Automatic annotation (TrEMBL):
This is Orotidine-5'-phosphate decarboxylase. InterPro entries: Aldolase_TIM, OMPdecase_AS, OMPdecase_type-2, OMPdeCOase_dom, RibuloseP-bd_barrel. PROSITE patterns: OMPDECASE. It is an enzyme of class 4 (lyase). It catalyses: orotidine 5'-phosphate + H(+) = UMP + CO2. Keywords: Decarboxylase, Lyase, Pyrimidine biosynthesis. Belongs to the OMP decarboxylase family. Type 2 subfamily. Residues 1-194 form the Orotidine 5'-phosphate decarboxylase domain. Pfam families: OMPdecase (PF00215). Signal peptide: none annotated. It comes from Luteimicrobium album. Pathway: Pyrimidine metabolism; UMP biosynthesis via de novo pathway; UMP from orotate: step 2/2.
């Protein structure tokens, strides 16, 4: 499926959400980011919740192979706040540092700092997170990378939510509608109409 999509000229984000340590993370990176691998798309979603540094093999291979990463930051599932909104420790050991989500965004921003127009290390930020980015101190405009926005369609996100969540960062957003399009199937013409409608709505919401 990945090869067929790429042969048709479509960019492919592999939503595998991989994250581990050491040799296991090395293996994931090789499987999903190495040239010639049947699982390698154009970008990969990864989980940083064993520490952002654990993603180093994926970061290094993505950058060297011309691919991208989308790092889970503020996800669209209702349970995500338990981890992502938690506060990191200050230098003195108190839990009043930046939120975990803000820390992930800061790491991505550091990797993208010198990129123009933007870097290859993006974030996953759900369309349904409401004001979570503001409340967690996550300045999405400074990430200087793409923002993958799931939650459009079946999860309730739409043009208004895209505008509200991303604000001035909406020019960096790649909106994702999966079930919202697929539920129009299996008729091919119906699927195409649903996809076209999703594209039109996203463009209207994300246009600066």
């Amino acid at each position: 499926m990945i090869a067929a999509a790429q042969a048709a000229g479509t960019l492919v984000v592999v939503d595998a959400k991989r994250g581990d340590i050491g040799s296991t993370m090395d293996a994931y990176a090789e499987a999903f980011l190495r040239d010639g691998s049947p699982l390698a798309g154009d970008a990969l979603t990864v989980s940083p919740y064993l520490g952002f540094g654990s993603l180093a093999p994926a970061v290094d291979l993505a950058l060297s192979s011309g691919r991208g990463l989308f790092v889970l930051c503020l996800t669209s599932n209702k349970e995500g706040h338990e981890v992502q909104h938690a506060r990191t420790l200050t230098a003195e050991g108190w839990p009043s540092g930046p939120s975990v989500a803000a820390a992930m965004a800061a790491h991505a921003a550091a990797l993208n700092a010198d990129a123009d127009p933007m870097g290859s290390i993006g974030l996953v930020v759900g369309t349904t997170v409401g004001d979570a980015a503001e409340r967690t101190g996550t300045d999405l405009t400074t990430v200087n990378g793409p923002l993958l926005a799931p939650g459009v369609g079946a999860q309730g996100g739409g043009p208004a939510e895209l505008t509200a969540v991303f604000g001035t960062a909406r020019g960096q957003v790649l909106a994702s509608s999966s079930r919202g399009v697929l539920r129009a199937g299996p008729d091919v013409a119906s699927l195409r109409r649903a996809a076209d409608e999703a594209v039109t709505d996203a463009r209207a919401a994300l246009r600066d």
